[in-house]
Amino acid sequence: MEDLVSEDKKQEQELEGVKPIGEGRSGAGKIAAADAVEKEEGKEKSLEEQLADALADAAEQKDLKLRLAAEFENYKKRMMREKITAMKYAGEPVLREILATVDNLERAIDQGQAEGVEAEQRLSSLLEGVQLTLKSLMTTLEKFEVKPIESMGKPFDPTNHEALTMEPSDTVPVNHILNVFEKGYQYKDRLLRAAKVIVSAGDKE
Questions:
Q1: Alpha carbons 27 and 194: distance in angstroms, whole number
Q2: CA-to-CA dists, residue 17 to 140, 168, 170, angstroms
Q3: 95-122: buried (b, 16+ CB within 10 Å) or exposed (e) per residue?
Q4: Sheet of 146-148, strand order
Q5: What are residue 167's DSSP bridge partners?
Q6: Could you tell me how many helices (H) and strands (E) the chain has, helices first?
Q7: Which residues touch 146 (CB under 8 Å, ≥6 apart)?
Q8: Domains, the chain
Q9: Per the confidence metrics, is the pTM higher than 0.70?
């Protein structure tokens, strides 16, 4: 009987000496939990940094767009000013060329009024000066692609000709140009001025 009692006490003492499961790891568990919290806090900081970077990038992109918009607006204004200036002085090259014609006419007049020269010689000099001036002017017009329309003896074309009247003719066929009262001109591929003409009505009979 005493042996049984002693055996029970021995088992109780052994059970009292056994620690509960996990009790011996309580320190390690706390460390692991702390590490997990620190990692979580690190993740939160990383997200905050990413958000700050994204906001900074968005602000930079907005600033860039505003600067580009301002530059484009300035470009449009500059182009508009240049266009207005170009339209305002578009005739400058033509006028510069015409000035040479004015010079030639003035020289021709001066020669026609020269003192101590006979009238016939003055008239001849004046005529020669006018002819040279006309030649110079026609050269200028051709430079700007302005050309006279050849009409004499051609069939009447209402697109390029304006008929003033019709006259009978033995030499020019009917509905052909008998005489040119005022030349027509073409600018590049466009009619600048129609020729004023007299149209043949055909044989007098």
A1: 111
A2: 125, 149, 151
A3: eebeeebeebbeebeebbeeeeeeeeee
A4: 146-148, 185-187, 190-193
A5: 200
A6: 4, 6
A7: 185, 186, 187, 192
A8: 146-205 (2.30.22.10)
A9: no
3-state secondary structure (DSSP) of residue 191: strand
**Could you tell me where the beta strands, DSSP code E, fall in the chain?**
146-148, 161-167, 177-182, 185-187, 190-193, 195-200
| Token pair recorded at residue 2 | 């005493």
**Residue entry with tokens 């182009």:** 79
Question: Exposed e or buried b for every residue in 22-60, given b needs 16+ CB within 10 A?
Answer: eeeeeeeeeeeeeeeeeeeeeeeeeeeeeeeeeeeeeee
Cα–Cα distances in angstroms (integers) from residue 128 to residues 116, 163, 197, in the given order:
19, 32, 28
Tens of pLDDT, residue by residue, the chain (205 residues): 555 445 555 555 554 554 554 444 455 555 666 565 555 555 555 788 888 888 888 988 999 999 999 999 999 999 999 999 888 888 888 888 888 888 888 888 877 776 766 777 878 888 888 888 888 889 989 998 999 999 999 999 999 999 999 999 999 999 999 999 999 999 999 999 999 999 999 887 6
Q: What is the helix (H) or strand (E) element at residue 64, kind and residue range?
A: helix 26-88
